């Protein structure tokens, strides 16, 4: 259960990392939407923004964004969902790091 919580935290940190984006490409522009949005993690709005980030993610980080979207969409109040989250926990940290590195290198 603890690993699943850490995975969810990694996904939320990755979404926050997108707020550093300021470049002109579509993926970086998603960060502007995240930065100005007022949403709860796991909400429909958060899901929509993560879906948009996955859609606009370049091929080199698309799989990472899919992992983060899946983790961010976990209903932390649902014990069964939290059990499923443990499968994603091992991938969430590296995925967040890869997305963060991409943002640092490619977004203003």
Summarize the structure.
77% of the residues lie in helices and 0% in strands. It is mainly α. The protein has one domain (2-102).
Topology, number of strands: 0
| Cα end-to-end separation | 36 Å
* Helix-strand pattern: HHHHH
Q: Approximately what portion of the residues adopt beta-strand conformation? A: under 5%
Mean pLDDT: 74
Amount of helix: over 70%
Number of domains: 1
Which of globular, elongated, flat, extended, rod-shaped describes the shape? globular
Low-confidence stretches: 19-24
The helix/strand class is mainly alpha
Query: So how many helices?
Result: 5
The largest pleated sheet is described as: none
Radius of gyration: 13 Å
How would you portray this structure in words?
With 108 residues, the chain is mainly α. It has one domain (2-102). 77% of the residues lie in helices and 0% in strands. The protein contains five helices and no strands. It has helices at 2-18, 26-36, 44-56, 59-72, 79-106. Helix 2 runs antiparallel to helix 3. It is globular and about 40 Å long. The relative contact order is 0.24. Mean pLDDT is 74; it is low at 19-24.
């Amino acid at each position: 259960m603890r690993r699943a919580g850490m995975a969810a935290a990694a996904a939320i940190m990755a979404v926050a990392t997108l707020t550093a984006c300021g470049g002109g490409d579509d993926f970086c522009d998603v960060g502007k939407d995240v930065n100005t949005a007022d949403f709860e993690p796991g909400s429909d709005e958060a899901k929509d923004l993560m879906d948009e980030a996955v859609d606009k993610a370049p091929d080199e980080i698309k799989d990472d964004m899919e992992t983060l979207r899946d983790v961010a969409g976990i209903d932390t109040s649902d014990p069964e969902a939290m059990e499923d989250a443990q499968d994603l926990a091992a991938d969430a940290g590296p995925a967040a790091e890869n997305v963060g590195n991409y943002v640092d290198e490619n977004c203003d």
